[in-house]
Amino acid sequence: MRLEGLVRRAIDMHVHVGPECIARKYDAMQFAREALRRGLAGAVLKSHFFPTSDWAYLARKHAGARFFGAVALNRHVGGLNPYAIRAALGPRIGDEPLLRVVWMPTIHSKSHLAMRAGRGDGYDIPTEWGGAMPGCGRKASEVDPVDVMAEGAGSALDEVLGLIKEFDLVLATGHLHWEEAELLFERARGKGIRRIVITHPLYEAVGMPLDRIASISKRGAYIEQSYALHLIDGIPIRRIAECIEAVGPERTILSSDLGQATSPSPPAGLLRFFRELRREGVDPEDIRTMACENPRALLG
After folding, report:
1. What residues does each domain of the chain span?
2. Contact criterion met (CB below 8 Å) for 158 and 177
3. Model pTM?
4. Could you say which of 42, 116, 199, 246 has the lowest number of CB atoms within 10 Å?
């Protein structure tokens, strides 16, 4: 099985596009043309700052790219704001809402801000992502985190989870610390939500131990492994392969998490990811399951 062919069948569930206050490699329409040229089957567009279902609509209607929208519940959309989800549900093609994924807070989670406060520059937006335009980033110590599991957040979180359940959306845990992610998983499962992704659990802000990753996958979560964790954050491919082995391909998804101005294109990044996993002994059939079949199951 040729790995190039797998890229053409893959759905990348984590692609950053612009325009936004971080310099990005592509805007949504540019990425649509790149995805069609390279043969990528589909993608979920992500922004830390805005809902992206309107971008997905434009890319579908005017370029024919099979893109889906998402919203990340950072301060820029009001945190745990059900109205942001309702607005993102608006863009449709026919009767199909293009919103598919709701990310819990990323750059404004407690754990992300604590990680950033401990770094030299201390801003909520990491410089390795391409830096922020003037006025966009803030010192982590000055940002009020979106505390998903705080007692006072209960009603807002329940309304958010209710919308995810009602519209059969994918719940992704964002940059929540692993203990918060586990609590959220149990709460979401209790409300009947079945499409749940633990967002790149090896990322420093998440820091989920391998035994907990294996455990939560056995309880029904999908585990995301993204190439940016290796390319930008320096996590060895061997460690990612060990995590895949512990979880199994049936509960793992592979994504690029690319779109940074200086990174390879998401299709090129996926191909490099597949090749490096193959060198670590991951079977091409398992790569197909993780990059092609599991995203399709999650996105419905």
Report:
1. 3-299
2. no
3. 0.96
4. 246
